[in-house]
Fold:
Amino acid sequence: MKDIADISAVMTDIGTRARAASATLGFAPAEQKRDALLAAADSVWARRQDILAANAQDMEFGRNKGLTDAMMDRLLLTEERIQGICDGLRSVALQDDPVGEVLAEWDQPSGLHIKRVRTPLGVIGVIYESRPNVTADAGALCLKAGNAVILRGGSESFHSSSALHSCLVDGLRKVGLPEDAIQLVPTRDRAAVSEMLTMTDFIDVIVPRGGKGLVGLVQREARVPVFAHLEGIVHIYIDAAADPETVMNVVLNAKTRRTGICGAAECLLIHRDVADTIGQDIIRTLVDAGVEVRSDANFLSIDGVTPASKDDWGCEYLDMIIAARTVESLDDAIEHIRTYGSNHTDCILTEDQTAVDRFFQRLDSAILMHNASTQFADGGEFGMGAEIGIATGKMHARGPVGAAQLTSFKYLVTGDGTTRS
Structure:
């Protein structure tokens, strides 16, 4: 490798090799890509002790850096989580290959036969923070879709990501695919990110996965197209026709199962007609579970609840904190979400189908849910095996970004000596 002090030269070399690898991946047989991912999964499990040792180094780095408990949870790998990584790799491997899928097919009066088919994007750059499992998820999904990928993990997960990347390369090597198909930027230096954002000759799209600061930086500075993954300012609206048991189960899971993921609930909107019944009960339950509730005046009589400030509306805590307020109506809740949400994931709890229909129709979040925990906002839970992130924009990819979302398409046009008059 070239002198790591010359970040520009290193990134140019990585980009050149990725572009060359993408040319091979574009027509790699489905079975070869499948077998590479299955071999990578086997390698991850066989080398799990090495991965755990690498993760221990990252955890120490994170503690010294003063990361929050939620961020440390994102960073942590356990044997159970490594098993989950292996399961994700195998799940992606066994999915139908998206490349070459016929999306539409028709004949024209002119005699032309036209097909629109899926094709790889080319080279994808993924910039992410903390969670080392993104290394495996992103590498697997990009490979499945026939793309080369350049991974730039967070400084906190440097050792874990390196260990997982090595396993992905094992899989490529075993089946004879280019090892440059999945590359990991070999430095914590932030200059590498700046380089990636301007590598228009080598990278076809950038996928940022992280906090508001990272995504904002990428959107401001990127010359390469971006699939934006914004904050998960996730709302749950408790309607007047909500079932009390459903509210208790769903809200508690949505807030407390894992607070550091983007699908964790951050704001609770409670219809005024049930504020003194279901509302009081769920607020008390959250407080008893160790959640810090920041509320409007309606729930301040409950011990442990503190007044919400204007900054609590539209805040992604990623912690054991939730904002709560009473709303006058379903439309009031919709207006609040439109004002403070991030178009990520929002949920309605109700037994009134008319209310569900209005909620689904009037809001345009990437994911809308009814009577289900927002912790399901995850590509794996959507049957995609894994995801690179939840795209909140409206161009090209939206919602969980799986293998199919990492493709474009081309038209295949067939004639029989056909000419245009």
Observations:
- The first helix runs from residue 7 to 25.
- Residues 235 and 337 are 7 Å apart (CA to CA).
- The chain has a mean pLDDT of 94.
